[in-house]
Write a structure and sequence with these properties.
The chain is an alpha/beta fold and 514 residues long. The chain is 32% helix and 23% strand. It contains 17 helices and 20 strands. The strands form 4 sheets. Strands 6-5-4-7-8-9-10 form a 7-stranded parallel sheet, sandwiched between helices. The chain has a 6-stranded mixed sheet with strand order 12-11-13-14-15-16, covered by helices on one side. Helix 10 links the parallel strand 8 and strand 9. Helix 4 crosses helix 6, helix 13 packs parallel to helix 14 and helix 14 packs across helix 15. The two termini are 35 Å apart. GO terms for molecular function: NAD binding; phosphoglycerate dehydrogenase activity. This is D-3-phosphoglycerate dehydrogenase. Keywords: Amino-acid biosynthesis, NAD, Oxidoreductase, Serine biosynthesis.
């Protein structure tokens, strides 16, 4: 970790610092704060040895090495440095793109071996090429700016990118298929989720133009490495540049043996400037937190006093789940989100729960951690307006939260309530009355209210050994539109959802993970 970046802590008279591996410290019970990078795994067992611990700071973006559930249960705040390596990653991606198209690593190896073979390393110019960017968050945005300077055309796929923001940034929005079929170079910049894992696999890579180049400096697993090897072998893919891999350290020797594959050992964020930035950011964050100020980049806990948090906690968790559900079912660009409160919840500080809903909504859509503090900024960057209002209507409940999401081509609504004996409940979706717990594996189905639809749905799930835990059906009138919310015991594969959509009477089906 950068010494210069740690100066805020090292020079503070209020904090005593020990720079050492946690495995080399005999007594961990004395520490109030823990700063780590990716090499240190923060487990429940480690946290148990640190009873005084108040905060864990990750000098970087990813927190895969920290047990967030265990930290939350112990009341330990986890923070990161979400902005510190944006430029480094964007620059590394661009460097990989240039190296790939100009065969620079191969030419270096050749000349160091005493060869002089100019014809073997003829490359391609970037000018005039079409760069497809999959995922348009902070890193994708910075990459686009650099690509425009090289006179490249830009196709951007991000299902949550509004037309207004795309026009402002000077890029062309496209479907994923348009990016695949129309790009000379494709780079991915999304988080690794159930939707993006294997996104560039056999089916989608086959849609690319012959001679396409692929780049992944985001998360290992977004490009299916077995599929990539197949299309490298038959010459369809002209080359690939990888900074991240499905398994790290990289173990697939067959993949790395391709002469048109270049790789780096997950170093996109490894610059002196980035390491200084992330170390300084978390050092200042920890120092402020230990001095009694709220953590601005908290990932797992809201920045509230314990007394306020205990009162608002049930609604905080409810709105987080509502936002997450809305994000998964509203897979289109969104322009506006309105949150309405009725009943006893209006006596609380609802700005906290509104920010929680926004964080839950935005997290599946961006490539960095979203929390209550930065949700407003990220929403603004994405061109999403949001607000809250109180209402007299409670729909028969003691408290009600009603969220309306407006997109470019559709509107989606959800109502939730908290019942002390039963916990958080979703009680209405798009005007259909339901009653289910927002947790676990869910299947959301829109269908016609006719005999046999539910039976065929149940039989199909049974054929795939998917057990139904609970099922809620909502309808407005007999024989009209209806919805089902089915809770199941395991994650449902995409092929099952595709077969559900083929059942007569079902016109929409998708999974929701809570």
């Amino acid at each position: 970790m950068s010494k210069e970046g740690l100066l805020p802590l090292l020079e503070s008279n209020q904090v005593e610092c020990l720079e050492k591996n946690v495995n080399d410290v005999d007594d961990l019970s004395q520490f109030d704060a823990l700063l780590v990078r990716s090499a240190t795994t923060v487990t429940d067992e480690l946290l148990a040895k640190m009873p005084k611990l108040k905060i864990v700071a990750r000098a970087g973006v990813g927190v895969d090495n920290i047990d967030l559930d265990a930290a939350t249960k112990r009341g330990v705040v986890v923070v990161n440095a979400p902005d510190g390596n944006t430029i480094s990653t964007a620059e590394h991606t661009f460097a990989m793109m240039m190296s790939l198209l100009r065969n620079i690593p191969q030419a270096v190896a050749s000349i160091k071996a005493g060869e002089w073979n100019r014809k073997a390393f003829q490359g391609y110019e970037l000018r005039g090429k079409t760069l497809g960017i999959v995922g348009f968050g902070r890193i994708g945005t910075q990459l686009a700016q650099r690509a425009k300077a090289f006179e490249m055309s830009l196709l951007v796929f991000d299902p949550f990118l509004t037309k207004a923001r795309a026009e402002k940034l000077g890029v062309t929005t496209a479907t994923l298929e348009e990016v695949l079929t129309g790009s000379d170079i494709i780079t991915v910049h999304t988080p690794l989720t159930k939707e993006t894992k294997g996104l560039l696999g056999m089916e989608n890579i086959a849609k690319t133009k012959p001679g396409t180049f692929l780049i992944n400096c985001a998360r290992g697993g977004i490009i299916d490495e077995q599929a990539l090897k197949h299309f490298l072998s038959n010459g369809h893919i002209a080359g690939a540049a990888l900074d991240v891999f499905e398994e790290e350290p990289a173990t697939d020797k067959e993949l790395l043996a391709f002469p048109n594959v270049i790789g780096t050992p997950h170093i996109a964020a490894s610059t002196k400037e980035a390491q200084l930035n992330v170390a300084a950011q978390v050092s200042e964050e920890v120092l402020r937190f230990l001095e009694g100020e709220p953590a601005s980049n908290s990932i797992n806990l809201p920045t509230l006093s314990k007394e306020i948090y205990e009162k608002v906690k049930p609604f905080y968790e409810l709105t987080r789940s509502m936002g997450n559900i809305l994000s998964q079912v509203m897979r289109t660009p969104v322009q506006e989100i309105d949150v309405y409160y009725g009943g006893t919840v209006t006596n609380l500080e609802t700005s906290i729960t509104t920010r929680s809903l926004m964080a839950g909504f935005l997290q599946p859509r961006v490539d960095a951690a979203v929390n209550d503090v930065n949700a407003s900024l990220i929403a603004k960057e994405r061109g999403i307006n949001f607000g809250e209002k109180q209402m007299n209507q409670t729909y028969g409940y003691s408290n009600i939260i009603h969220a309306i999401v407006r997109g470019e081509d559709r509107i989606f609504e959800i109502k939730g309530t908290y019942v002390k004996e039963y916990g958080p409940r979703i009680v209405n979706i798009n005007g259909f009355n339901v009653d289910f717990t927002p947790s676990g594996h869910l299947i959301y189905i829109q269908h016609n209210d006719r005999p046999g639809v539910i039976g065929r749905m149940g039989q199909l799930l049974a054929d795939y050994q998917v057990n139904i835990a609970t099922m809620q059906v909502g309808r407005k009138e007999e024989g009209g539109e209806a919805i089902m919310m089915v809770a199941v015991d395991k994650l449902v594969e995409e092929k099952v959802i595709n077969e559900l959509k083929l059942i007569e009477g079902i016109y929409f089906a998708d999974t929701i993970e809570c």
